[in-house]
Write a structure and sequence with these properties.
The chain is mostly helical. It has a single domain, classed as Helix Hairpins (Orthogonal Bundle). The protein has four helices and no strands. The protein has helices at about 10-20, 30-50, 65-85, 90-100. Helix 2 packs antiparallel against helix 3 (about 65-85). The radius of gyration is 18 Å and the shape is flat. The termini are far apart. This is Nucleotide pyrophosphohydrolase. Keywords: Hydrolase. It holds the Pfam family MazG. GO terms for molecular function: hydrolase activity.
């Protein structure tokens, strides 16, 4: 396997699946996973608010980082994709095609190009 920092989405999906397959419970239901994803996004939002917002951490709060919380969101999203038998590489490529076509001129471009 490649260096962990160079893993493809497919490799990440396989690694997460290997982890989950250790346990009898396996993957949670889609609704339970969505609840977990929502929880992780909330933790990310809280951390972003502490780091970039106006709400400092309380003295007794854990020292999490935005990076850790964002990784939690990614891992739970991968778990959900795996349980629904979705190929995230394929989904990513399709979405990027959509963004590159639909939103090509949505924002002011650095190269000065404008929609005809």
């Amino acid at each position: 396997m490649q260096n962990e920092k160079e893993q493809t989405l497919k490799e990440m999906q396989l690694e997460v699946d290997d982890y989950i397959q250790q346990f009898k419970a396996g993957y949670f239901s889609p609704l339970a996973q969505l609840a977990r994803l929502t929880e992780e996004v909330g933790e990310l939002a809280r951390e972003v608010n502490h780091v970039y917002g106006e709400k400092p951490k309380k003295i007794n709060e854990e020292k999490n980082t935005v990076e850790e919380e964002l990784a939690d969101v990614l891992i739970v999203a991968i778990m959900m994709a795996n349980s629904l038998d979705l190929d995230l590489t394929d989904a990513f490529q399709k979405n990027m095609e959509k963004f590159n076509q639909r939103d090509k001129f949505r924002f002011e471009r650095k190269d000065g190009q404008k929609h005809d």
